[in-house]
Amino acid sequence: MSVYEKLKSLDITLAAPAAPVAAYVMHVQTGNLVFISGHIAKKADGNPWVGQLGKNISTEEGQQAARAIAIDLIGTLQEACGGDLTRVKRIVKVMSLVNSTPDYTDQHLVTNGCSELLGEVFGAAGKHARSAFGVAQIPRGACVEIEMIAEIA
Q1: Its pTM surpasses 0.70
Q2: What is the 3-state secondary structure of 73-109?
Q3: Which residue, 41, 52, 51, is CA-closest to 18?
Q4: Ramachandran quadrant class, 61 (left: phi over 0; alpha: psi -120 to 50; beta: rest)
Q5: Count of other CB atoms within 10 angstroms of residue 122
Q6: How far apart are CA 61 and CA 34, in angstroms?
């Protein structure tokens, strides 16, 4: 099943990437690698998914937020690939920042929301190296921020 068929079967529609809100670009390519800037969790209305894991956001909600970020990351990756996700050879690395209390230790489970979707969409090429960190705060109060590195043809 192609990437686009998989997205359709999952009922996922990719939106155009959001414009940066500070002094950076959404993606940079060097050689065959695409570095995608951090994307924050947003709700369906486009507003940040605000909250802190271990305080007022559950692990399951955090996973949903991370999955939503994965969809946005794929949209940005599509733009970086000139509109053609079939150029993606591999998702290389995902780094996740989870807005969490000092005693919360399930950042890795939150990040699974992103990792699992990338695996579903890209198959074996979606399996990646990963880091997940707990942080005191994320821009705009978002509960999760994730960045990604991909290899393209």
Answers
A1: yes
A2: HHHHHHHHCCCCHHHEEEEEEEEEEEEECCCCCCHHH
A3: 41
A4: alpha
A5: 21
A6: 28
Task: Return per-residue pLDDT of the chain as tens, 153 residues.
Answer: 899 999 999 999 998 888 888 899 999 999 999 999 999 999 989 899 999 999 999 999 999 999 999 999 999 999 999 999 999 999 999 999 999 999 999 999 999 999 999 999 999 999 999 999 999 999 999 999 999 999 999
Determine the Cα–Cα distance for residues 120 and 2; give it in Å rounded to an integer.
11
- Alpha carbon separation from 139 to 48, 59, 145 (Å, rounded): 9, 20, 9
Contact 44, 51 (CB under 8 A): no
